[in-house]
Write a structure and sequence with these properties.
mainly beta; Immunoglobulin-like; 5-stranded mixed sheet; 4 helices; rod-shaped; disordered N terminus
Length: 456
Protein backbone atom coordinates (compact mmCIF):
# COMPACT_ATOMS: atom_id res chain seq x y z
CA UNK A 1 0.00 0.00 0.00
CA UNK A 2 1.40 3.45 -0.92
CA UNK A 3 2.06 5.41 2.28
CA UNK A 4 -0.14 8.48 2.74
CA UNK A 5 1.54 11.90 3.21
CA UNK A 6 1.21 13.42 6.66
CA UNK A 7 -1.08 16.42 6.47
CA UNK A 8 -0.31 19.88 7.95
CA UNK A 9 -2.95 19.39 10.66
CA UNK A 10 -1.19 16.25 11.79
CA UNK A 11 2.17 18.10 11.92
CA UNK A 12 0.70 20.82 14.10
CA UNK A 13 -0.80 18.18 16.41
CA UNK A 14 2.55 16.44 16.65
CA UNK A 15 4.31 19.69 17.48
CA UNK A 16 1.81 20.48 20.22
CA UNK A 17 2.46 17.05 21.73
CA UNK A 18 6.19 17.83 21.89
CA UNK A 19 7.20 15.31 19.23
CA UNK A 20 9.17 17.96 17.24
CA UNK A 21 11.90 19.90 19.12
CA UNK A 22 11.24 23.14 17.31
CA UNK A 23 8.37 24.20 19.58
CA UNK A 24 8.80 25.08 23.28
CA UNK A 25 5.97 24.60 25.74
CA UNK A 26 6.19 28.08 27.33
CA UNK A 27 4.11 30.69 25.51
CA UNK A 28 4.69 34.44 25.21
CA UNK A 29 8.50 34.36 25.76
CA UNK A 30 10.38 37.13 23.87
CA UNK A 31 13.14 35.72 21.69
CA UNK A 32 16.76 36.70 22.11
CA UNK A 33 17.89 38.29 18.86
CA UNK A 34 21.59 37.67 18.39
CA UNK A 35 23.75 39.55 15.93
CA UNK A 36 26.16 37.01 14.54
CA UNK A 37 29.70 37.93 13.57
CA UNK A 38 31.11 36.48 10.37
CA UNK A 39 34.48 35.96 12.05
CA UNK A 40 33.07 33.60 14.65
CA UNK A 41 29.48 32.35 14.36
CA UNK A 42 28.30 30.38 17.38
CA UNK A 43 25.86 27.61 16.91
CA UNK A 44 22.31 28.18 18.21
CA UNK A 45 21.56 27.09 21.76
CA UNK A 46 17.94 25.86 21.70
CA UNK A 47 15.86 25.55 24.83
CA UNK A 48 15.60 22.04 26.19
CA UNK A 49 12.90 20.48 23.99
CA UNK A 50 11.22 17.17 24.82
CA UNK A 51 13.40 14.26 23.80
CA UNK A 52 12.18 12.89 20.51
CA UNK A 53 13.85 10.18 18.48
CA UNK A 54 12.51 11.75 15.30
CA UNK A 55 14.55 15.05 15.46
CA UNK A 56 17.46 15.71 17.81
CA UNK A 57 19.15 19.13 17.94
CA UNK A 58 22.91 18.86 17.28
CA UNK A 59 25.52 19.66 19.91
CA UNK A 60 26.96 23.20 19.80
CA UNK A 61 30.06 23.26 17.59
CA UNK A 62 33.28 24.82 18.88
CA UNK A 63 33.58 27.25 15.97
CA UNK A 64 31.74 28.52 12.91
CA UNK A 65 30.08 25.54 11.23
CA UNK A 66 31.43 24.54 7.87
CA UNK A 67 29.22 25.09 4.89
CA UNK A 68 26.55 22.40 4.65
CA UNK A 69 26.54 20.85 1.18
CA UNK A 70 23.39 21.62 -0.71
CA UNK A 71 20.93 18.73 -0.77
CA UNK A 72 20.11 17.04 -3.98
CA UNK A 73 16.62 18.48 -3.78
CA UNK A 74 15.56 21.26 -1.37
CA UNK A 75 12.10 20.57 0.10
CA UNK A 76 9.52 22.88 -1.35
CA UNK A 77 6.93 24.64 0.77
CA UNK A 78 3.89 22.44 0.37
CA UNK A 79 0.80 21.65 2.36
CA UNK A 80 2.89 19.14 4.30
CA UNK A 81 5.15 21.90 5.77
CA UNK A 82 4.31 24.67 8.22
CA UNK A 83 3.81 27.98 6.37
CA UNK A 84 6.44 30.60 7.34
CA UNK A 85 7.16 33.94 5.70
CA UNK A 86 10.31 36.04 5.32
CA UNK A 87 9.85 39.70 4.43
CA UNK A 88 12.23 41.20 1.90
CA UNK A 89 15.10 42.83 3.88
CA UNK A 90 16.06 46.38 2.91
CA UNK A 91 19.55 47.03 1.48
CA UNK A 92 22.14 47.93 4.10
CA UNK A 93 25.86 48.71 4.44
CA UNK A 94 28.39 46.02 5.09
CA UNK A 95 29.06 47.26 8.64
CA UNK A 96 25.39 47.52 9.64
CA UNK A 97 23.02 44.70 10.66
CA UNK A 98 20.53 43.31 8.17
CA UNK A 99 17.07 42.97 9.71
CA UNK A 100 15.09 39.82 8.90
CA UNK A 101 11.40 39.68 9.90
CA UNK A 102 8.45 37.39 9.18
CA UNK A 103 6.03 35.11 10.94
CA UNK A 104 5.02 31.51 11.40
CA UNK A 105 1.53 31.74 9.98
CA UNK A 106 0.12 29.15 12.34
CA UNK A 107 0.74 31.74 15.07
CA UNK A 108 2.68 29.31 17.24
CA UNK A 109 4.73 31.01 19.96
CA UNK A 110 8.26 30.08 21.10
CA UNK A 111 9.01 28.05 17.98
CA UNK A 112 12.73 27.64 17.38
CA UNK A 113 13.97 29.19 14.10
CA UNK A 114 17.39 29.44 12.47
CA UNK A 115 18.81 31.82 9.86
CA UNK A 116 21.02 30.45 7.07
CA UNK A 117 23.13 32.12 4.38
CA UNK A 118 24.08 30.54 1.08
CA UNK A 119 27.81 30.45 0.40
CA UNK A 120 28.87 28.81 -2.83
CA UNK A 121 27.04 25.49 -3.04
CA UNK A 122 26.38 25.19 0.70
CA UNK A 123 24.58 26.95 3.51
CA UNK A 124 26.05 28.43 6.73
CA UNK A 125 24.19 29.00 10.00
CA UNK A 126 24.04 32.71 10.91
CA UNK A 127 21.69 32.94 13.89
CA UNK A 128 18.78 31.58 15.91
CA UNK A 129 15.69 32.96 17.62
CA UNK A 130 12.16 32.02 18.74
CA UNK A 131 8.78 33.22 17.60
CA UNK A 132 6.78 35.64 19.73
CA UNK A 133 3.13 36.73 19.68
CA UNK A 134 1.24 35.72 16.52
CA UNK A 135 4.27 33.70 15.41
CA UNK A 136 6.36 36.81 14.59
CA UNK A 137 10.17 36.67 14.62
CA UNK A 138 13.22 38.87 14.03
CA UNK A 139 16.90 38.25 13.20
CA UNK A 140 19.81 40.69 13.04
CA UNK A 141 22.93 39.77 11.11
CA UNK A 142 25.87 41.94 10.01
CA UNK A 143 27.54 40.91 6.78
CA UNK A 144 31.13 42.12 6.33
CA UNK A 145 31.14 41.54 2.58
CA UNK A 146 29.41 43.83 0.08
CA UNK A 147 27.35 42.42 -2.74
CA UNK A 148 24.26 40.24 -3.07
CA UNK A 149 23.68 37.68 -0.28
CA UNK A 150 21.01 34.96 -0.14
CA UNK A 151 19.29 33.96 3.11
CA UNK A 152 16.64 31.55 4.31
CA UNK A 153 14.83 30.98 7.62
CA UNK A 154 14.02 27.39 8.62
CA UNK A 155 12.01 25.86 11.43
CA UNK A 156 14.26 23.91 13.75
CA UNK A 157 18.00 23.37 13.59
CA UNK A 158 18.40 21.03 10.66
CA UNK A 159 19.01 22.15 7.10
CA UNK A 160 17.06 21.50 5.01
CA UNK A 161 14.11 21.55 7.38
CA UNK A 162 11.64 18.72 7.46
CA UNK A 163 9.11 21.02 9.13
CA UNK A 164 9.15 24.18 7.07
CA UNK A 165 11.30 26.97 5.62
CA UNK A 166 10.90 30.32 3.91
CA UNK A 167 11.64 31.16 0.30
CA UNK A 168 15.17 32.43 -0.35
CA UNK A 169 15.69 36.18 -0.12
CA UNK A 170 18.49 38.07 -1.88
CA UNK A 171 19.78 41.04 0.14
CA UNK A 172 21.86 43.87 -1.28
CA UNK A 173 24.82 44.65 1.01
CA UNK A 174 26.16 48.09 0.07
CA UNK A 175 29.88 48.75 -0.11
CA UNK A 176 30.74 51.91 1.85
CA UNK A 177 34.00 53.49 0.74
CA UNK A 178 36.13 56.23 2.30
CA UNK A 179 38.20 57.99 -0.33
CA UNK A 180 40.93 60.54 0.38
CA UNK A 181 41.84 62.79 -2.52
CA UNK A 182 45.43 62.61 -3.69
CA UNK A 183 47.66 65.12 -1.85
CA UNK A 184 49.46 67.88 -3.74
CA UNK A 185 53.16 67.51 -4.47
CA UNK A 186 53.96 69.70 -1.44
CA UNK A 187 52.52 72.32 0.89
CA UNK A 188 53.95 75.34 2.72
CA UNK A 189 53.91 75.39 6.51
CA UNK A 190 50.94 77.13 8.12
CA UNK A 191 48.78 77.32 5.00
CA UNK A 192 45.78 75.48 6.47
CA UNK A 193 46.66 72.18 4.84
CA UNK A 194 43.73 69.76 4.73
CA UNK A 195 43.10 66.29 3.36
CA UNK A 196 39.80 66.14 1.52
CA UNK A 197 37.64 63.30 0.30
CA UNK A 198 34.25 61.62 0.56
CA UNK A 199 32.43 58.80 2.33
CA UNK A 200 30.14 56.89 -0.05
CA UNK A 201 27.33 56.39 0.60
CA UNK A 202 27.03 59.25 3.12
CA UNK A 203 25.77 58.36 6.58
CA UNK A 204 22.94 60.33 8.21
CA UNK A 205 23.84 62.16 11.40
CA UNK A 206 27.20 63.35 12.64
CA UNK A 207 30.23 61.19 12.03
CA UNK A 208 33.92 61.90 12.54
CA UNK A 209 36.81 61.19 10.22
CA UNK A 210 40.34 61.12 11.59
CA UNK A 211 43.70 61.79 9.97
CA UNK A 212 46.32 59.20 10.82
CA UNK A 213 50.03 59.01 10.09
CA UNK A 214 52.38 56.06 10.11
CA UNK A 215 54.68 56.33 13.12
CA UNK A 216 56.85 53.60 14.61
CA UNK A 217 55.23 50.98 12.41
CA UNK A 218 51.73 51.86 13.67
CA UNK A 219 48.95 54.24 12.68
CA UNK A 220 48.26 57.09 15.10
CA UNK A 221 45.42 59.61 14.93
CA UNK A 222 46.54 63.24 14.60
CA UNK A 223 43.39 65.31 14.00
CA UNK A 224 39.70 64.85 13.22
CA UNK A 225 36.80 66.60 11.50
CA UNK A 226 33.07 66.08 10.95
CA UNK A 227 31.85 64.49 7.75
CA UNK A 228 29.31 66.71 5.98
CA UNK A 229 25.78 65.40 5.27
CA UNK A 230 26.75 64.80 1.64
CA UNK A 231 29.70 62.64 2.76
CA UNK A 232 32.51 65.10 2.05
CA UNK A 233 35.20 65.99 4.57
CA UNK A 234 38.24 68.24 4.99
CA UNK A 235 40.42 67.13 7.89
CA UNK A 236 43.30 69.41 8.96
CA UNK A 237 46.91 68.32 8.66
CA UNK A 238 49.31 69.52 11.40
CA UNK A 239 51.39 71.88 9.26
CA UNK A 240 53.44 73.81 11.82
CA UNK A 241 56.45 71.54 11.40
CA UNK A 242 58.08 70.74 8.07
CA UNK A 243 57.95 67.01 7.44
CA UNK A 244 57.00 64.26 5.02
CA UNK A 245 54.25 62.00 6.35
CA UNK A 246 52.45 58.90 5.16
CA UNK A 247 48.81 59.57 5.98
CA UNK A 248 45.33 58.11 5.60
CA UNK A 249 41.83 58.91 6.86
CA UNK A 250 39.58 56.60 8.89
CA UNK A 251 36.09 56.82 10.32
CA UNK A 252 35.95 57.36 14.08
CA UNK A 253 33.43 56.82 16.85
CA UNK A 254 32.13 53.40 15.86
CA UNK A 255 32.91 49.79 16.56
CA UNK A 256 36.23 48.48 15.29
CA UNK A 257 34.39 46.26 12.84
CA UNK A 258 32.69 49.33 11.35
CA UNK A 259 35.87 51.34 10.66
CA UNK A 260 36.43 52.46 7.09
CA UNK A 261 39.96 53.42 6.03
CA UNK A 262 41.14 55.17 2.89
CA UNK A 263 44.21 54.37 0.85
CA UNK A 264 47.30 56.14 2.13
CA UNK A 265 49.05 59.15 0.61
CA UNK A 266 52.30 61.04 1.15
CA UNK A 267 52.12 64.63 2.40
CA UNK A 268 55.16 66.91 2.27
CA UNK A 269 55.19 70.14 4.30
CA UNK A 270 57.95 72.57 3.33
CA UNK A 271 59.52 75.27 5.50
CA UNK A 272 59.24 78.69 3.83
CA UNK A 273 58.98 82.24 5.14
CA UNK A 274 55.85 82.79 3.02
CA UNK A 275 55.84 86.57 3.52
CA UNK A 276 52.68 88.49 2.65
CA UNK A 277 52.48 92.29 2.32
CA UNK A 278 49.35 94.44 2.46
CA UNK A 279 48.25 97.97 3.27
CA UNK A 280 47.19 98.78 6.80
CA UNK A 281 44.44 101.04 8.08
CA UNK A 282 44.70 103.63 10.85
CA UNK A 283 42.12 101.63 12.82
CA UNK A 284 44.51 98.64 12.92
CA UNK A 285 47.25 100.73 14.55
CA UNK A 286 45.15 103.09 16.66
CA UNK A 287 47.31 102.35 19.75
CA UNK A 288 50.66 102.99 18.08
CA UNK A 289 49.80 105.76 15.62
CA UNK A 290 48.60 109.25 16.49
CA UNK A 291 48.42 112.64 14.81
CA UNK A 292 51.81 114.26 14.50
CA UNK A 293 53.75 111.02 13.90
CA UNK A 294 56.54 111.35 11.30
CA UNK A 295 54.88 108.77 8.99
CA UNK A 296 51.29 108.31 7.90
CA UNK A 297 49.39 104.96 7.84
CA UNK A 298 49.52 105.09 4.06
CA UNK A 299 53.33 104.90 4.32
CA UNK A 300 53.22 101.75 6.45
CA UNK A 301 52.74 98.13 5.42
CA UNK A 302 51.39 95.07 7.20
CA UNK A 303 53.88 92.21 6.85
CA UNK A 304 52.99 88.65 7.88
CA UNK A 305 55.61 85.91 7.84
CA UNK A 306 56.60 82.60 9.39
CA UNK A 307 59.16 82.23 12.16
CA UNK A 308 60.61 79.43 14.27
CA UNK A 309 59.39 79.49 17.85
CA UNK A 310 61.18 78.51 21.03
CA UNK A 311 59.09 75.33 20.94
CA UNK A 312 60.72 74.18 17.70
CA UNK A 313 57.53 74.72 15.68
CA UNK A 314 56.71 77.27 12.99
CA UNK A 315 54.42 80.18 13.91
CA UNK A 316 52.89 83.05 11.97
CA UNK A 317 54.04 86.54 12.92
CA UNK A 318 53.14 90.13 12.03
CA UNK A 319 55.15 93.32 11.68
CA UNK A 320 54.14 96.89 10.85
CA UNK A 321 56.98 98.41 8.79
CA UNK A 322 57.73 101.39 6.57
CA UNK A 323 56.93 100.77 2.91
CA UNK A 324 60.54 101.46 1.92
CA UNK A 325 61.78 98.84 4.44
CA UNK A 326 59.65 95.90 3.28
CA UNK A 327 62.17 94.36 0.89
CA UNK A 328 64.99 94.54 3.44
CA UNK A 329 62.81 93.06 6.18
CA UNK A 330 61.82 90.13 3.98
CA UNK A 331 65.48 89.47 3.15
CA UNK A 332 66.49 89.69 6.83
CA UNK A 333 63.77 87.36 8.03
CA UNK A 334 64.32 84.89 5.22
CA UNK A 335 67.92 84.47 6.37
CA UNK A 336 66.82 84.19 10.00
CA UNK A 337 64.09 81.65 9.18
CA UNK A 338 66.42 79.51 7.10
CA UNK A 339 68.89 79.51 10.01
CA UNK A 340 66.05 78.53 12.38
CA UNK A 341 66.82 81.41 14.72
CA UNK A 342 64.13 81.20 17.46
CA UNK A 343 61.70 84.05 18.05
CA UNK A 344 59.50 84.12 21.14
CA UNK A 345 56.68 86.30 19.79
CA UNK A 346 56.05 88.60 16.84
CA UNK A 347 52.98 90.83 17.15
CA UNK A 348 51.95 94.43 16.57
CA UNK A 349 52.59 96.58 19.63
CA UNK A 350 48.90 97.54 19.38
CA UNK A 351 48.21 94.09 20.87
CA UNK A 352 49.88 95.43 24.04
CA UNK A 353 47.94 98.68 23.99
CA UNK A 354 50.87 100.55 22.43
CA UNK A 355 52.94 100.06 25.62
CA UNK A 356 56.61 99.42 24.93
CA UNK A 357 57.12 98.21 28.52
CA UNK A 358 54.37 95.57 28.17
CA UNK A 359 55.63 94.49 24.75
CA UNK A 360 59.18 94.08 26.07
CA UNK A 361 58.03 92.12 29.13
CA UNK A 362 56.16 89.77 26.75
CA UNK A 363 59.43 89.12 24.87
CA UNK A 364 57.94 90.57 21.69
CA UNK A 365 59.66 91.29 18.39
CA UNK A 366 58.28 94.40 16.66
CA UNK A 367 59.03 97.39 14.42
CA UNK A 368 56.60 100.33 14.34
CA UNK A 369 55.49 102.23 17.45
CA UNK A 370 55.16 106.00 17.35
CA UNK A 371 56.38 106.92 20.87
CA UNK A 372 59.08 108.54 22.93
CA UNK A 373 62.24 106.64 23.83
CA UNK A 374 61.64 104.48 26.88
CA UNK A 375 63.64 106.07 29.69
CA UNK A 376 63.95 109.37 27.81
CA UNK A 377 60.63 111.22 27.28
CA UNK A 378 62.38 114.07 25.45
CA UNK A 379 63.44 112.03 22.43
CA UNK A 380 61.32 110.44 19.67
CA UNK A 381 61.99 106.73 19.26
CA UNK A 382 63.42 105.54 15.92
CA UNK A 383 60.54 103.03 15.94
CA UNK A 384 58.26 105.97 15.10
CA UNK A 385 59.56 105.87 11.52
CA UNK A 386 58.84 102.18 10.89
CA UNK A 387 62.47 101.21 10.27
CA UNK A 388 63.96 100.21 13.65
CA UNK A 389 63.34 96.73 15.02
CA UNK A 390 63.58 95.10 18.47
CA UNK A 391 64.17 91.33 18.64
CA UNK A 392 63.51 88.96 21.57
CA UNK A 393 63.39 91.76 24.13
CA UNK A 394 63.73 89.58 27.26
CA UNK A 395 66.79 87.66 26.05
CA UNK A 396 68.25 90.92 24.75
CA UNK A 397 67.61 93.69 27.34
CA UNK A 398 68.82 97.27 27.07
CA UNK A 399 70.21 99.90 29.42
CA UNK A 400 68.14 103.11 29.20
CA UNK A 401 69.38 106.67 29.58
CA UNK A 402 67.95 106.73 33.11
CA UNK A 403 70.30 103.89 34.12
CA UNK A 404 67.51 101.25 34.28
CA UNK A 405 67.64 97.93 32.45
CA UNK A 406 64.48 97.03 30.49
CA UNK A 407 62.58 94.79 30.71
CA UNK A 408 62.90 93.80 34.36
CA UNK A 409 62.40 90.12 33.56
CA UNK A 410 65.43 90.23 31.26
CA UNK A 411 68.03 91.14 33.89
CA UNK A 412 69.45 87.60 33.92
CA UNK A 413 70.50 88.09 30.30
CA UNK A 414 72.79 91.07 30.97
CA UNK A 415 75.62 88.56 31.20
CA UNK A 416 76.46 88.00 27.54
CA UNK A 417 79.23 85.50 28.24
CA UNK A 418 76.71 82.65 28.50
CA UNK A 419 74.88 81.93 25.25
CA UNK A 420 71.24 80.96 25.60
CA UNK A 421 68.39 80.43 23.19
CA UNK A 422 67.13 83.62 21.54
CA UNK A 423 70.14 85.78 22.49
CA UNK A 424 71.73 87.92 19.77
CA UNK A 425 75.44 87.92 19.04
CA UNK A 426 77.48 89.23 16.15
CA UNK A 427 77.36 85.74 14.62
CA UNK A 428 73.58 85.38 14.93
CA UNK A 429 71.63 85.13 11.66
CA UNK A 430 69.42 88.21 12.30
CA UNK A 431 72.44 90.29 13.35
CA UNK A 432 74.46 89.43 10.27
CA UNK A 433 71.48 89.93 7.94
CA UNK A 434 70.57 93.34 9.42
CA UNK A 435 74.15 94.60 9.46
CA UNK A 436 74.56 93.52 5.83
CA UNK A 437 71.33 95.42 5.03
CA UNK A 438 72.83 98.65 6.45
CA UNK A 439 71.50 98.56 10.02
CA UNK A 440 73.37 99.49 13.17
CA UNK A 441 73.19 97.18 16.20
CA UNK A 442 72.56 98.89 19.53
CA UNK A 443 74.89 96.48 21.36
CA UNK A 444 77.75 98.79 20.30
CA UNK A 445 76.46 101.82 22.20
CA UNK A 446 77.96 102.95 25.48
CA UNK A 447 74.65 102.06 27.07
CA UNK A 448 74.08 98.75 25.27
CA UNK A 449 70.76 97.96 23.63
CA UNK A 450 71.06 94.28 22.67
CA UNK A 451 67.57 94.04 21.16
CA UNK A 452 67.66 97.11 18.93
CA UNK A 453 68.62 97.62 15.24
CA UNK A 454 68.12 100.79 13.19
CA UNK A 455 69.34 102.08 9.81
CA UNK A 456 72.70 103.80 9.94
Amino acid sequence: MKPRALGSAAVVAALCLGLVPTIATAAGEDPATPTASPASTPAPQPAEPPATPAVTPPAAPASTPAATPAPAQTPAITADLLPITLNQPVPTWEDRPITFTGRLETGLVNSYLTLWQKLGTGWVLRGSTRTIANGAYKFLYTSPDPGAATFRVVIGVKFPSAVGNTPDRAVSVLDRKLVMNRPAASYIVLTNVRMTGKLTPPEPGKKLVGLQDRFGGKWRTLTSAWIAPNGTFAVPVPDNLPATKTVRVVTLGGASTAVEASAYGVVTIKALLNAKVSNISAASINKTYRAGCPVKPSQLRYLTLNYWGFDGLVHRGELVVRDAAVAKMIAVWTASFNAKFPIRRMQRVDVFGGSDLKAMAADNTSVFNCRQVTGNPYALSPHSYGFAIDINTVENPYLAANGVWYPSNGLAYRNRSVARKGMLFSSSAPTRALVNAGFFWGAGWRQPDYQHFQPK
